[in-house]
TrEMBL record, chain A:
Boundaries of every AB hydrolase-1 domain copy: 8-248
Positions in coiled-coil regions: none
SUPFAM superfamilies recorded: alpha/beta-Hydrolases
Highest taxon above the source species: Bacteria
Pfam families, sorted: Abhydrolase_6
PANTHER family: HYDROLASE, PUTATIVE (AFU_ORTHOLOGUE AFUA_2G14860)-RELATED (PTHR43798:SF33), MONOACYLGLYCEROL LIPASE (PTHR43798)
This protein's name: AB hydrolase-1 domain-containing protein
Length: 469, 508
């Protein structure tokens, strides 16, 4: 069997436990041959798990984070979540991206008919009916069967239907009631804001409130990178109704985000996840580790300028292999935030304008036939000439607004910006042997280094950084 | 914290809370004066600092300055503080004392300037600062047998070990550097527990455990305990004079609104860029025409050597070895000299320096970044002679507070270049003696000094030897803009001493 390359954590919907991950796990095994480990999570009050201390979504997220922290191995992972689990996942994701969970490696989300961070749309009649099912204790066989039947487009197979009903029957009535009266109606949207990571949202065309037509409106603002997939002849119980399609989309998201972005080894991931790293620092690293959006739309530069910047980034800060940081896109995003390094050369246009002028100017000069050996040599000569200042007298496009000295100074800024972005990625830290982020933990015990001599390391440091002192 | 009404005429308003403003604030408050400090940047609790180099610059003055001349100075993280604590939030805590010869450079060499201050008097204040903030260092100190450090030195890191080995082979004296890093836990009055050194190489990013002294964990809590008020996020941009031509109030912006604080005395302590910028913007205290002139930046050239072993100089106090053997090197044709310090630096800092200082790109750049962990550096703090045309003026571009941005022009002169050349050769020899496989020179300057210099003669400076404006009797300047010459010692310790001295002179 293949060693798993990563983990899929599964957060089930209302009434379902970790076992609801079963059909998806089977489908993933068939599809990915053991590449992905699936860890289902029993949320509080589900499948025999104890009830939460209160009815908030945060309390459900606490349990999910505990399990993820315990089960994560430092390698990459994706969270898949169904219905109620989707709302919990928004909270979990927010915590992870802020560094407020001791985990590292989140690559993206696969959400199945998720409940949104806003109050879940649900008719009062339906809420009242569902509440009535637990008036006298655990849900009855009949009502559980009715619930399953109401939420599928076509009847499940006998084994699946039985499994679903069995889980529903083990559900705590308190947890059921709390979700309907508290968790589902909480509005977490202002706490959570925007979660800018790779996401795919699957929903059925025959689902009501959380169906395919409703999801974009509910979630597009929360997950700006979400891709919405509509499943025909599908109700609400995607983990049972469409396990194969779900598995397909998990693999698709995985392949689009994990092999394409530089990864740290699990040992480094565990160090980032550990208490030695301050939550805020962990959050910065979690954001930087996310795969870039292949469809990134520039915010400050034109698409042509972005292309030119990508070509320059490839030469100035070369990355080998297919796992790359889209340095040009990240420069554009930084420019949109109007970040500055605190100074610029006299007469130099402000950063954004310098980038626009500089990229337009270089587009006119750039030898871009990449298959041609001569083009590479010409690019080298151009780059060297700009850095050394030899080309300062060379006519620049832009007239008085852009001369050769400006080009030279901008090129210094450009090389610095691209390099700092590349270098601040956690995989770059690991590559160059920097673990200083892990000296920012709580102020007790030894927070920094005991060993500072050449060739030696502390026990908590990654093994390749030296011999044990 | 005690607060004061804006219409109350407080005894003293201090603009800035770094090495220039804070010791003075504490001293004045301690003597019962009503004092208010206005700080442009935010107040940050210790756990609000991060060692992440991308995000850490929230403790730096990142509002753009414009830089010109033959050797444009880098601002931002290089030398500019922002927030309660000022530049001491990001300083390197390297605390050599000022050398007596440097205060008499003109008398000695015929160039540069003398300081109108007695070295022994200054040294008494230096020793007081060292006691208050906690400076560790070696006793005896090779270049000053009288000196005593109250705390033993902090650990040497790998670059320090290598520099020590190289120096030993060449007969150069070198020892543990004096540093404002605690080697023992301490209960800092009015602040609380400060931990002993954790061997953190990220002190320039802001340090959350109190191992490094800042004014925010020393003088400022003492000042507040004695009744000082500190107003963060308050950017002073105007000064009002009364009919007698004395300062009557300062005008500042806070949360987008304009406020005015009345005062009987004003102390400007915004540093070598913000103080002259404010004076040029208000047109005050400049009868000499010297405001903004004689901008000084220490020579800061570095040489890096690559070694076989993993050095990882981001561990440990970054400058844990010093040599003062070159404060007056023999057989040279330049005035003044330089200090040597071992160097370990953070990764983004190193990358920025190899890009800007050595012009690297592409595969060569990536190789240099991969070699960083095997690299140890040595750097200098070198004398910079004052020059009229190295100066700060106002540009025609406004910043976010509506104040014209500073334009600073700096070109290294023949003396600076000669020092850089000599130091580069010295550092290269040391690294080679230590076994470096190859060496690389990185150009750099440090600090922002001299733009409102002190002078005995009102025609040649902005303040007198006590720190008082030659023009406005109730305006004082207490920051590194007052340095007549750069000294070879790093400025912060000297500045804190000057700050106490100015406070005592104000209290007379």
């Amino acid at each position: 069997m293949t060693t798993p390359a990563g983990t899929i954590f599964f957060l089930p919907g209302l009434g379902f436990g970790a076992a609801a991950a079963g059909p998806i796990a089977d489908a993933l095994d068939a599809l990915a041959g053991g590449r992905l480990r699936v860890v289902g999570i029993d949320l509080p009050g589900h499948d025999g798990s104890p009830d939460a201390p209160n009815g908030s979504v945060a309390a459900l997220a606490d349990r999910a984070v505990q399990v993820i922290e315990a089960e994560a191995d430092g390698g990459p992972f994706v969270i898949a979540a169904h219905s109620m689990g989707g709302k919990v996942t928004a909270v979990v994701t927010d915590r992870i991206l802020r560094g407020r969970a001791n985990v590292f490696g989140l690559a993206g989300l696969v959400l199945l008919a998720p409940s949104p961070p806003t109050p879940e749309p649900m008719s009062e009649d339906k809420r009242a009916e569902m509440l009535s099912w637990v008036d006298d204790g655990p849900i009855s066989q009949g009502h559980a069967s009715e619930f399953v039947a109401q939420n599928v487009a076509a009847p499940l197979g006998e084994a699946a239907a039985r499994a679903a009903v069995e889980q529903l029957r083990r559900m705590s009535p308190l947890a059921w009631r709390r979700w309907l009266t508290e968790g589902s109606v909480e509005d977490l949207s202002s706490d959570i804001g925007v979660l800018d990571l790779p996401v795919v949202v699957l929903a059925g065309e025959d689902d009501d409130d959380l169906g395919a037509s409703a999801q974009p409106q509910l979630l597009a603002d929360v997950y700006p990178r979400a891709r919405f997939v509509s499943l025909a002849s599908t109700g609400h119980l995607l983990p049972y109704e469409r396990a194969a399609e779900v598995a397909d989309e998990i693999v698709r998201l995985w392949d689009a985000t994990v092999p394409t972005a530089p990864q740290v080894t699990p040992e480094w991931g565990r160090l980032i996840a550990s208490e030695r790293t301050a939550p805020e620092a962990r959050g910065f690293l979690a954001h930087r580790a996310l795969a870039d959006d292949p469809d990134y739309a520039p915010r400050v530069l034109s698409p042509e300028q972005l292309s030119m910047l990508r070509a320059l980034a490839d030469r100035l800060v070369p990355q080998s292999g297919t796992a790359r940081v889209d340095l040009a896109a990240r420069v554009d995003a930084d420019l949109a935030l109007a970040r500055s390094d605190g100074w610029r050369n006299e007469g130099q246009p402000a950063n954004v304008f310098a980038y626009r002028l500089g990229l337009d100017d270089l587009s006119a000069l750039w030898p871009d036939d990449t298959d041609d050996q001569n083009a590479t040599a010409e690019q080298n000569a151009l780059i060297e000439g700009i850095i050394s200042g030899e080309l300062n007298e060379h006519q620049a496009l832009g007239g008085d607004a852009w001369n050769g000295t400006m080009r030279q100074h901008w090129f210094d800024d450009l090389r610095t910006d691209l390099t700092r972005i590349w270098l601040s990625h956690p995989a770059s830290f690991a590559r160059i042997g920097y673990d200083g982020f892990a000296t920012s933990g709580p102020a007790f015990g030894s927070v920094g280094y005991n060993t500072v001599a050449a060739g030696l390391r502390d026990p908590w440091e990654p093994v390749e950084l030296g011999d044990l002192a | 914290m005690r607060t004061y009404d804006r219409d109350e005429i407080v005894d003293v308003v201090v603009v800035g809370t770094g090495a220039g403003g804070a010791p003075l604030l504490a001293r004045l408050a301690g003597r019962g004066l009503k004092v208010v400090a206005l700080e442009a940047g935010p107040n940050t609790d210790p756990d609000g600092f991060t060692n992440d180099e991308v995000e850490a610059p929230r403790i730096n003055w990142m509002s753009e300055r414009l830089s010109g001349g033959g050797d444009p100075t880098a601002f931002g993280t290089n030398n500019s503080g922002f927030g309660v604590g000022g530049g001491t939030l990001h300083w390197g805590a390297f605390t050599p004392r000022p050398d007596a010869r440097d205060l008499r450079l003109r008398t000695e060499s015929g160039v540069g300037e003398d300081w109108p201050i007695d070295h022994a008097e200054l040294t008494r204040y230096v020793a007081e600062v060292e006691r208050t903030i906690g400076v560790s260092g070696p006793t005896p100190y090779p270049w000053d047998p009288e000196r005593e450090y109250l705390e033993p030195p902090v650990d040497r890191n790998a670059p320090a070990d290598l520099m020590a080995a190289g120096c030993a082979r060449l007969g150069i004296r070198a020892t543990d550097a004096p540093a404002a890093i605690l080697s023992r836990d301490r209960d800092q009055p009015h602040f609380g527990n400060r931990r002993s050194s954790q061997n953190l190489g990220s002190i320039h990013q802001g340090e959350r455990y109190g191992t490094k002294a800042t004014t925010a964990n020393t003088y400022l809590p003492a000042a507040v305990a004695d009744g000082a008020e500190i107003r963060p996020d308050s950017m002073v941009h105007g000064i009002e004079l009364d009919a007698q031509g004395r300062v009557g109030a300062v005008v500042y912006r806070h949360d987008g609104k304009e406020y005015r604080q009345r005062c009987a005395n004003l102390v400007l302590a915004g540093g070598g860029i913000e103080t002259p910028r404010l004076l040029l913007n208000t047109g005050l205290a400049n009868s000499s025409g010297q405001v903004g002139r004689n901008f000084l930046a220490h020579g800061g050239v570095q040489v890096w050597g690559r070694f076989d072993e993993q050095i990882r100089g981001y561990r440990g106090y970054p400058s844990s070895l010093i040599s003062e053997d070159f404060v007056r090197p023999e057989g040279v044709d330049f005035a003044g000299g330089y200090l040597l310090q071992s160097l370990g630096v953070m990764p983004l800092n190193y990358a920025t320096t190899v890009i800007r200082g050595a012009g690297l790109w592409g595969a060569e750049l990536m190789n240099a970044l991969d070699a960083w962990r095997y690299s140890a550096g040595i750097g200098i703090n070198g004398e910079c002679l004052p020059a009229e045309n190295n100066r700060l003026v106002l540009s025609d571009e406004l910043d976010e507070w509506g104040v014209p941005r500073a334009l600073v022009t700096f070109t290294a002169g023949a003396n600076e270049n000669a020092i850089t050349e000599h130091a580069t050769a010295t550092m290269t020899r040391i690294l080679e003696a230590a076994g470096a496989l190859e060496t690389r020179v990185l150009a750099r300057t440090a600090h922002t000094l001299g733009t409102c210099r002190m002078s005995a003669d009102p025609a040649t400076g902005v303040i007198d030897a006590e720190g008082r404006s030659h023009d406005i009797p109730n305006m004082w300047i207490s920051d590194n803009s007052t340095f007549p010459s750069s000294l070879s010692a790093n400025p912060c310790l000297t500045q804190m001493a000057l700050s106490l001295r100015t406070a005592d002179l104000m209290l007379r």
